[in-house]
Amino acid sequence: MNIKSIITFENVYKVYEKGGSKINALTDVSFSLEPGTLSTIHGPSGSGKTTLIYLMGLLKKPNTGEIIIKGIKTSNLDEKKRCKLIRDEIGFIFRRSNLLPNLTALENVMLPMSSSDNKKAEKLLEKVEVSDWNRFPINLSFEEEQKVALARSLVNNPTFILADEPTADLDSKTAQNFMNLLKKLDNVTILITSDDNLLGEFNKFSNQNFKLKDGVLTG
Amino acid sequence: MLVDIMGIYSLALKNLRRNRLRNLSTVLRISLGVIILLILVSSGLGINSFIEKSGTSNGKILAGPDNQAINTTNQTNIVSSAVDYLNSLFGSKVTENQLLSRLKDFFVNLAYILDGLASIALLIGVLGVMNTMGFNLSERKREIGILKSMGFTKMQILISCTLEAALLGLIGSLIGVILGTLVIWIISSFFIPGFFTILLPFWLIPGSILITTLISLILGLYPAWFTSEIKIEEALLCEY
Predict the structure, then answer these.
(1) Which chain A residues are within 8 Å of B18, Cβ to Cβ?
(2) Which residue of A has its CA nearest to B146?
(3) In total, how many domains does chain B have?
(4) In a domain, B91, yes or no
(5) Alpha helix locations (H) across A47-156?
């Protein structure tokens, strides 16, 4: 294990079973992410990108192997500690429908906060260039929705952000704007998964690029 | 812990803004249950009070529920006339005491029946909470996944969903208590003045609110537990 790394995957396997058949979603995945880097994982649909993101975000457990976050082995954490680790250290951005529809943009950002500090949430929304934050998600564009999701993921000062195909529903120009925003973030480690089609776009921004095919990661 | 769940605590209140028609119909059903509960329980209490106050002694009614309003002599005459009429009609030999005793038994049983009906009416009204919460939460699976991805625990999600059910009960019972009190006041003022009073004791108002909210909370527990247990990958795969 690299002592500097924020996240380390050690020989991680994830197998899904359905109807008696087994699918190897991830096979012997080992890698680590350095602090403050922007890394990408490319792979076609069904390659295991989302599974990897969920494992890294502690939303799932691996069958075998260990995921170490800031030196903490996560395989045997109880629910309370796991949730605290997610809340304090991890920010998530999904491909779509990231926001709770009955909350305004500002309320969505404030939801995971443990204090009701409006100003912090407002500052983050300004930082991600979203104005009029009392709008509900239905009145936001796709780009604005993703930006609000980014602001929310940053609200608890996470160590790293996991973005699962965050620009998949955006056109190339707005996708580039979104990536520029991610690049501007300081002191946050970012991991983005993407479809192969966007490979060229993402390589411009990232420090590390991984490829994932049939559950096997190559650097 | 409380500060920790403030965000999700207020979410329960904000979620009531959604599915307004469904939530409104549930609230109205609960209100109707509470109105019926108040009327029936109050009537039962009024009957009990009437029986207690109008006990017999030497064939004479001692007092009505309202000592100033009821004339004892007039009542004795009414009872005597009723006994005479019944005896002539059926050829029986019932005394005034026997008739009053049977009437008393009848009213005591009636009070119990009214209490039972009141409980059933309330339960039927509040049962809608379980149904409504089941529908509401089944439409929010993806959101539950998002909440879990933010680090909310199963328990926090359970509390939030259960609070939502309790709030439905609370709002329904508040409306029911206000309308029920109004209906009781109208009935006792205009329809049966001076006969026997419908009693609405103070404890019945907070009692109805508390019981209704508590039952709603308990009924909301199952859909809330079911929702909090949903696997995150399933939840995030949902379209809604």
Answers:
(1) 101-102
(2) A98
(3) 1
(4) no
(5) 49-56, 79-89, 105-110, 118-127, 142-154
- Smallest CA–CA separation between A50 and chain B, in Å? 9
**DSSP 8-state code for residue B184:** H
List the one residue out of A132, A10, A25 whose CA is nearest residue A71. Answer: A10
pTM: 0.81
B1 in a domain, yes or no?
no
Which CATH superfamily, name and number, covers A7-218?
P-loop containing nucleotide triphosphate hydrolases (3.40.50.300)
Contact criterion met (CB < 8 Å) for B143 and A84? no
Q: How many CB pairs (< 8 A) connect A and B?
A: 63
Instruction: Break chain A into its structural domains and give their ranges.
Output: 7-218
- Whether B186 and B172 have beta carbons less than 8 Å apart is answered as no
Question: Between vectors from CA A193 to CA A189 and to CA A198, what angle results, nearest 5°?
Answer: 120
Q: For residue B159, give its domain range.
A: 6-12+21-57+100-237
Q: Please give the Cα distance from B24 to B168 (Å, whole number).
A: 9
Supply B134's token pair. Answer: 């089941």
pLDDT 10s digits, B60-86: 444 444 544 455 666 667 778 888 888
Residues of A in contact with B17 (CB under 8 A): 102
pLDDT, tens only, A150-190: 999 999 889 999 998 888 888 888 888 888 888 888 788 99
Residue of A15, A89, A102 for testing the chain B interface, max B β-carbons within 10 Å:
A102
Is residue B34 in a domain?
yes
For residues A58 and A41, the answer to whether their CB atoms sit within 8 Å is no
Contact B219, B129 (CB under 8 A): yes
B141 within domain boundaries: yes
All residues of chain A having their beta carbon less than 8 Å from the beta carbon of residue B152 are 83, 87, 112
